[in-house]
């Protein structure tokens, strides 16, 4: 069959007919465990009944009304997002993580001139501005030249960072940061690096933007992942889980940046979509202190379970993560063979950089479901390394 869709993704050879919780079902009746929740989008798993109910109720009222009208759910979601920062601020809504980062870039360009720093293996999106600050040379190169005055520094290298600022600190306008690399392999910022970065921020007064597109909305056991570290951002970008499975993003401008845009300076025809806002309200209301505690507990359980696997298979060389944002790294593997062995074993996995398996299970996953994932991983690795 000839497809008229541009081939921008390596799609799996299964046809999905339904999905519920951590499970996806194909047209042949096979059941698969989805270990990455639609790449971190489905905070409470597939087919969440509360989210679907909210979308249906909103849909009966209207699908779209344009930005000439204010949806009351937009007020709730924006207030909730700002209050979780414990600072005054305001929100710009978009449709994707890339759009959220584009809004942040545009704001920086309005208020500050100078170098924008990003880090190697940061991922901020594929639109031209977001791509300009994404730390993967291979995906930037076909589209260069991109935005100018962007510098990529090594992640977690405090000495290099201090030397760079010693020579260029007065020229730096902003720093973009993923506290936990998503596409970069679930690498966490070190305490030393975060402390050095904040000391430099105090000295040179640059803007700090934390990209929480994947790591925010409770994923790590805090509402925002920067809250695990000694960081105080000026701008926060969120998306993925925010819309409950529908496109929605937010760029949160704090303190003096709260009114960075005037009417007409930035906008979107579709954002914020009313259905996504209704879903978001339901999602956010369920990110409670008790849930965040459970995410931390189950995150530790998942990590320890993966460490047990690492002790069993010497092909696993590292286990890392925070909360329910986890990964294990393998050596001497054929990533394609790994992916399809898992698939044939009823397990959907996400392989990064041909050697890192990223796990983003639902925030309400149970220990029994974690055990089921670990058992499937064990079977898959056993098949590969017999």
Automatic annotation (TrEMBL):
<dbReference type="InterPro" id="IPR050103">
    <property type="entry name" value="Class-III_PLP-dep_AT"/>
</dbReference>
<keyword id="KW-0808">Transferase</keyword>
<dbReference type="InterPro" id="IPR005814">
    <property type="entry name" value="Aminotrans_3"/>
</dbReference>
<keyword id="KW-0663">Pyridoxal phosphate</keyword>
<dbReference type="GO" id="GO:0008483">
    <property type="term" value="F:transaminase activity"/>
</dbReference>
<dbReference type="InterPro" id="IPR049704">
    <property type="entry name" value="Aminotrans_3_PPA_site"/>
</dbReference>
<protein>
    <submittedName>
        <fullName>Aminotransferase class III-fold pyridoxal phosphate-dependent enzyme</fullName>
    </submittedName>
</protein>
<comment type="similarity">
    <text>Belongs to the class-III pyridoxal-phosphate-dependent aminotransferase family.</text>
</comment>
<keyword id="KW-0032">Aminotransferase</keyword>
<dbReference type="InterPro" id="IPR015421">
    <property type="entry name" value="PyrdxlP-dep_Trfase_major"/>
</dbReference>
<dbReference type="InterPro" id="IPR015422">
    <property type="entry name" value="PyrdxlP-dep_Trfase_small"/>
</dbReference>
<dbReference type="InterPro" id="IPR015424">
    <property type="entry name" value="PyrdxlP-dep_Trfase"/>
</dbReference>
<dbReference type="Pfam" id="PF00202">
    <property type="entry name" value="Aminotran_3"/>
</dbReference>
């Amino acid at each position: 069959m000839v497809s008229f869709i541009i081939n921008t993704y390596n799609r799996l050879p299964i046809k999905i007919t339904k999905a519920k919780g951590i499970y996806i079902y194909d047209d042949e009746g096979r059941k698969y465990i989805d270990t990455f929740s639609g790449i971190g989008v489905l905070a409470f798993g597939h087919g969440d009944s509360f989210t679907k109910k909210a979308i249906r109720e909103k849909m009966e009222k209207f699908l779209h009304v344009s930005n000439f009208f204010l949806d009351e759910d937009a007020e709730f979601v924006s207030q909730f997002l700002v209050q979780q920062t414990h600072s005054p601020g305001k929100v710009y809504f978009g449709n994707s993580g890339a759009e959220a980062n584009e809004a942040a870039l545009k704001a920086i360009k309005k208020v500050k001139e100078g170098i924008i720093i990003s880090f190697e293996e940061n991922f901020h999106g594929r639109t031209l501005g977001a791509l300009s600050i994404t730390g993967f040379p291979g995906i930037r190169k076909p589209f260069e030249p991109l935005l100018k005055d962007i510098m990529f520094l090594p992640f977690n290298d405090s000495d290099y960072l201090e030397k760079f600022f010693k020579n260029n600190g007065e020229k730096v306008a902003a720093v973009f940061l993923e506290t936990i690399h998503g596409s970069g392999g679930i690498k966490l910022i070190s305490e030393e690096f975060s402390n050095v970065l904040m000391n430099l921020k105090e000295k040179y007064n640059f803007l700090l933007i934390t990209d929480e597109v994947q790591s925010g909305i409770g994923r790590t056991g805090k509402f925002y992942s920067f809250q695990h570290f000694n960081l105080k951002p000026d701008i926060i970008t969120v998306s993925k889980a925010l819309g409950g499975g529908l496109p929605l993003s937010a760029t949160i401008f704090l303190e003096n940046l709260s009114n960075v845009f005037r009417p007409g300076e930035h906008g979107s025809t579709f954002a914020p979509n009313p259905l996504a806002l209704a879903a978001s309200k339901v999602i956010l209301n369920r990110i409670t202190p008790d849930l965040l505690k459970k995410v931390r507990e189950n995150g530790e359980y998942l990590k320890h379970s993966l460490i047990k696997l690492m002790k069993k298979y010497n092909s696993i060389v590292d286990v890392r993560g925070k909360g329910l944002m986890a990964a294990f790294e393998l050596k001497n593997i054929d990533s394609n063979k790994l992916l399809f062995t898992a698939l044939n074993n009823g397990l959907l996995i996400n392989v990064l950089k041909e050697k890192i398996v990223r796990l983003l299970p639902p925030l309400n996953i149970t220990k029994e479901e974690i055990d089921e994932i670990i058992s499937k991983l064990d079977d898959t690795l056993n098949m590969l390394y017999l």
